[in-house]
Specification:
The protein is an alpha+beta fold and 240 residues long. It folds into two domains: 58 residues, ATP12-like (2-Layer Sandwich), CATH 3.30.2180; 154 residues, ATP12-like fold, CATH 1.10.3580. It is 55% helix and 10% strand. It contains ten helices and eight strands. Strands 2, 3, 4 and 5 form a four-stranded antiparallel β-sheet that branches. A hairpin with a 2-residue loop joins β2 and β3. α3 crosses α5 and α7 packs antiparallel against α8. The chain is globular. The two termini are 32 Å apart. The mean pLDDT is 93. Belongs to the ATP12 family. Keywords: Chaperone, Transit peptide. InterPro entries: ATP12_ATP_synth-F1-assembly, ATP12_ATP_synth-F1-assembly_N, ATP12_ortho_dom_sf. This is ATP12 family chaperone protein.
Length: 240
């Protein structure tokens, strides 16, 4: 059985969830039968710890399956069905984000935001320079700045080749708007919580001034759940 994107709710059709070692890795099993991805690939993983956490998502389901409550499962499905055959394209998307990376665009005000950007983003740029040998240019406001080709080449060279890691990195990049913040998580320089805050300091400052928008907060919580799952996957398979 696979976890697809059917519009109608899927009733829980299994009682027991477990994992078992197989020729392709550790399989997630429902009532002793292996789970398959929507693309009909076996849901088998090299990491036993990751397989167990994916299995725990299936075990936690109620009378109907809620795919949104299974972020690790969805990410693994994406990696096995899509990233395996499209690593170059997925990596290129990360590099494109680096070309206009969030941390390179600095606000002119207010002072609180300017200070937070320096506090939280400067260490990310230092990490990119020291660990990845990538030097980035800064800009104020929204006018685009062209990044040095050698910096983007360095980012491209630093991308993981393994599909699960690459899928996690890509997802974190899209959700945060920053390839550099996401690479800092990949290399253990930032925790998921630190990275998420760094990517959302604009919202933090706005909410301190104007209060919280309930619907915006719900959307951010949903994105955070997926971001946290991607970071957790990196912890379970080994970051870098």
């Amino acid at each position: 059985m696979s976890l697809g994107n059917a519009a109608a709710p899927i009733k829980r059709f299994y009682k027991e969830v477990g994992t078992a070692a197989g020729p392709a890795g550790f399989q997630v099993q429902l009532d002793g039968r292996p789970v398959r991805t929507p693309g009909r690939n076996p849901l088998a993983l090299a990491s036993e710890a990751l397989a167990r956490e994916v299995a725990a998502e299936w075990a936690a389901q109620g009378e109907t399956l809620d795919p949104l409550s299974m972020p690790l499962t969805r990410l693994v499905n994406s990696a096995l069905d899509g990233v395996v055959a499209a690593k170059e394209e997925v990596g290129a998307e990360v590099v494109r984000y680096a070309g206009s990376d969030l941390v390179c665009y600095r606000a002119e005000g207010p002072a609180r935001l300017v200070a937070l950007q320096a506090e939280l983003w400067d260490p990310v740029l230092a990490f990119a320079q020291e660990r990845l040998d990538a030097r980035f240019r800064l800009a104020e406001g929204v006018m685009p700045v062209a990044q040095p080709p050698e910096a983007l080449d360095a980012i491209r060279a630093s991308l993981p080749d393994e599909p699960l890691r690459l899928a996690a990195l890509n997802l974190m990049t899209v959700l945060s708007g920053s390839a550099l913040i996401s690479l800092a998580v990949l290399h253990g320089r930032l925790t998921a919580d630190e990275a998420w805050r760094a990517a959302h300091i604009d919202e933090e400052v706005q909410e301190q001034a104007w209060g919280t928008d309930h619907e915006a907060e719900l959307r951010r919580q949903a994105r955070w759940r997926d971001f946290r799952a991607a970071a957790r996957l990196l912890e379970l398979v080994g970051a870098a």
